[in-house]
Amino acid sequence: MPDTPKSAAAETIYLRDYTAFGWTVTSVHLTFDLAPNATRVTTKIAFAPNPDAPAQPFTLMGEDLTLISARIDGVTVTPTLHPGGLTVDVPDAPFIWEAEVEIDPASNTALEGLYMSNGMYCTQCEAEGFRKITYYPDRPDVMAPYSVRVNSDLPVLLSNGNPVAQGDGFAEWDDPWPKPSYLFALVAGDLVAHSDRITTMSGREVALNIWVRPGDEDKCAYAMDALKRSMIWDEQVYGREYDLDVFNIVAVDDFNMGAMENKGLNIFNSKFVLASAETATDADFARIESIIAHEYFHNWTGNRITCRDWFQLCLKEGLTVYRDQQFSGDMRSHAVQRIEDVLMLRARQFREDNGPLAHPVRPDHYVEINNFYTATVYEKGAEVIGMLRTLVGEDGYRDALNLYFDRHDGDASTIEDWLKVFEDATGRDLGQFKRWYTQSGTPRLTLNERFNDGTYEIDIKQEVPETKNQADPQPLHIPVAIGLLSPNGDEVVPTQILELTETQQTFRFDGLGAAPVASVLRNFSAPVIVNRAGGADQNAFLLAHDTDPFNKWEAGRALSKSVLLDLLNGDDAGVAGYVDAMAQVITDDALDPAFRALTLGLPSEDDLAQSVFDGGCTPDPMAIYDALGILRGAMAAGLETPLRAIYAEMHTPGAYSPDAGPAGRRALRGAALGLLSRIDGGALARAHYDGADNMTDSLAALSALLRIGQGQDQIDAFYAKWADDRLVLDKWFMMQVALAPPETAAKIAENLSRHPAFDWKNPNRFRSLIGGLTSNAAGFHAADGAGYRFVAEWLMRLDPKNPQTAARMSTAFETWRRYDADRQDLIREQLNRIAAMTPISRDMGEMVGRMLNA
Ligand code: TRP
Ligand code: ZN
């Protein structure tokens, strides 16, 4: 039994309480003697008093550790153990701490610290997992060089940095770059490498390896290609080169998140590495490309410059997401990338920011930091950087970033440091802009427009929502990109940036011949909601004429949303006009097929529910589902001829390529197929399934069939074909539940949860099934509460094993205040049931507490 159990007390940590650690660490040496249930970890750590820190007792963090022995300067000591760590008297001078602890990786189901997955040892230390490996000042502002020895009979033994020695039953690694403990990693297993190499811009030769389980080595080529392109891109665009002799990536099946940027040894959820045409969709390939890039880019934004404390998480995550989005845009299409990023932002971040879990991009308090790896920190954090760049311009951004790397290399930094480099490099005052980091909630902009005597005026009013933690929100500094189009569709005023800093401001444009149509918030220049009286004609005009591709798409989205909201009120007058507008766009061969596919997409059920709620009404999930069905049916009927033409024209014979061009063609063809299936009884989809030679086409056909209540034969055939492929089987679970008819979704989920392949302790499998149901809005919100009960029961089952994943998935309930009293009662009952669980994890306790008490 470990003698330092995890603290049960859920203590709140505040940003304002930050104090530096009383010692610096000058070196860390770790030895691992690996054994599944009794791994020995021996540490030798050099500490020196930190003159900049207040006096404090010497305390190291530790959880689930059995302390075997401890020495200071070679003399045995007896530390005081307490929940969460130990305290011991130390000399008032530099000293060497040595300790031996025992840990039990085979019993570690939380997947934090050192754990096992299919016989392989691996680690996950961010945010606070290193303390489950040994006693340490496990906080990001303590940075040190590490050397590591791994003793094990397993054939492949990896850690951070460069390999220094290896032989029978051991390997030694040395990482010269000072790093915080959260970037430590160790992997040991029976692995094979897909290898390559690259020469950096200064001529350093780097060996690249992607380590996978035997049998998976033929699914690494795309990830390797993405890695090489990422490395070249970071040199060319940011001037940043790689800094070790090797870069290793390991794919693991059991992983709580997407991937982890450990120095020189990135660890990935295998889902974001392994891909072949037969097993991965176009979307999977694009995701792999962006996550490989994201983790690689962390080498500079995160690792060389890290965070002073976890409140500063957006310093590395917002910036690294911003960089991976830029990269994907450069590799593919900026217009399509921007639309996809905004879709994701609205689906996840706006939802979060408008519910009980809203928090600032830089939170100021938390109970469990794992609960703050959120869409707000990541995606809104990236939007804030995009706004900074818009405000200071390309050159200003480049100068600020160069100053950031020069000034802070090797530091554990803060948002204040980050904003200061922008102020120093550009001379701008960012005092008001900083509120984007400290206030929560999606700002609302209301527009009022006038035209008189050649002058167009626009009033822009901003409102930042009040919340429990935000009594008196202040106006933000918001860049509003705007362009003006003449009535015949010519751009008379090209894009310019209006800087909104007051609660309300008026902007004027003189010398216009006729009343213009304004294209506002081009390229989605700020993460806000815009209310505009414009109406269907204005949106149809912008859809046809806007030169800003994002706003062109946005106009179509606004149009479909208003048609759907009208349909919910029993008014179908706008449907025909919408179908006509779509006919224009989808047959416009000058437009990228990927763009056209996105234009054919409709707002999600969840997005519509939020819009209904914002309009002061109570969303009815089933009515929303039906309205979408009606509009899709009308689109299929009204667009049949162009859709059939597109289906034929977008056929792309020849070998599969995951590149943006052919992927866009498949996306448009798949969208056409989905609509056509609503009027042909599924005939085309069955033929499409039979003819598919790649996963994108198979899934397009299968989902088209499932959406019309068919496809059982194909589901059975799919299972028979892919029963041995765990990643493909995840799709099989997910699809059946996510696309089930609302009335039967919970029942189907329940039946599948008894399937022998439902290995619920694997996070990917759990997310496929439980997340499949929560993504099926009408099914999850079924009036009898069966969906709520099913999800709550599984969260309660998972929480004791894997609190991080369980707590993250509890966000399915975050929108509960939108719904009617009956549904609110049903959800409250489930949240209370979860809250009453004993024991409850700190992670889950915090989440349900915030959801119930906001
Ligand atoms: N730093 C990782 C990333 O964004 C995120 C991450 C991976 C993570 N695993 C985690 C965060 C576990 C918390 C816990 O790339
Ligand atoms: Zn990241």
Description:
The chain has 854 residues and is α+β, with helices and mostly antiparallel strands. Among the domains are: 13-278, Immunoglobulin-like, CATH 2.60.40.1730; 306-438, Neutral Protease Domain 2 (Neutral Protease, domain 2, Orthogonal Bundle); 444-534, Aminopeptidase N, middle-beta domain (Immunoglobulin-like). It has an eight-stranded mixed beta sheet with strand order 6-5-9-3-2-12-15-14, with no helix packed on it. A hairpin with a 5-residue loop joins β27 and β28 (491-500). α14 (640-649) packs antiparallel against α15. The radius of gyration is 27 Å and the shape is globular. Zinc ion binds at residues 294, 298, 317, 320. Tryptophan binds next to β20 and α2.
Helix content: 40-55%
The shape, in one word, is globular
- Total number of helical segments? 26
Work out the radius of gyration: 27 Å
DSSP summary, beta strand count: 31
Mean pLDDT: 97
Return residue spans where pLDDT drops below 50 for at least 5 consecutive residues: 3-8
Order of neighbouring strands in the sheet with most strands: 6-5-9-3-2-12-15-14
* Main sheet properties: 8 strands, mixed
CATH domain topology of the domain at 13-278: Immunoglobulin-like
Measured by DSSP, the beta-strand proportion falls in 15-25%
Mind telling me which CATH architecture of the domain at 13-278 this is? Answer: Sandwich
Oligomer category: single chain
| Structural class by SSE content | alpha+beta
CATH class (first level) name of the domain at 13-278: Mainly Beta
Calculate the terminal CA-CA distance, rounded to whole Å: 38 Å
